[in-house]
Amino acid sequence: MIKLIVQISQIIITIIATLLFASCGFNTKTIDGSGNVIKQDRKIEGAFTQVTAEGGLEVYIVQGSTSTVVVEADDNLQPHIKTELKGSELRISTDVNIGNAEARMVTVTLPKIEALVANGGSTLKSKTMLKSDDIDLSSSSGSNIEASVDAKNVSLETSSGASLRVSGKTTMLKTESSSGSSLNAESLLAKDVKADASSGSTTTVNASESLSADASSGSSINYVNTPKKLSAEENSGGSVSQE
Length: 243
Prior knowledge:
9% helix; Pectate Lyase C-like; mainly beta; disordered N terminus; 57% strand; 18-stranded mixed beta sheet; 243 residues
């Protein structure tokens, strides 16, 4: 019965998240693409270490020696795809709802990466291994992140029906999932892991030394291999188990 309730809750949460990001521009018009795709180099004045994607866009991350931003989209959509620098954050968004389009892709190259954020039904993927001392990845509101990382400290967060899949290696991994979201770090080899899951979310981790897991409210935390030290707490229908 608990599993059935959890499944129903996850479906409801996902539907709500989908409706939320689909209507994120409720007070703006919807524009379809012209079908004529062009590329545009965006000039960004200043350095940035965080990339935030919004508005249902597809954003690809490349770690390289210089910073560049290239938008590939239907020509009539180009003016509506915004690339704005706010402090150390590059925010990529739209000022209209984009309907049917041949392309809505943004490729970002940068030397140093500290955080990637996906909101509003956007997709964010790394095209290269992302190397950093510390890196934070956050996916919410029906968005999706797929990345490969090599960092000392990694922080992952999902909520509101979003998904996040990460591979690579790290010394310390912290995860937080909620509201029917999915966090898959099965292919992220971690020495120590601290995982928290709630509200029907699902988390999968791979710890070699230690795992501290706290699952509540119908959520689940799965671990691939049994670490040397395991601390598990289960509340309100939450579960911690080996995959």
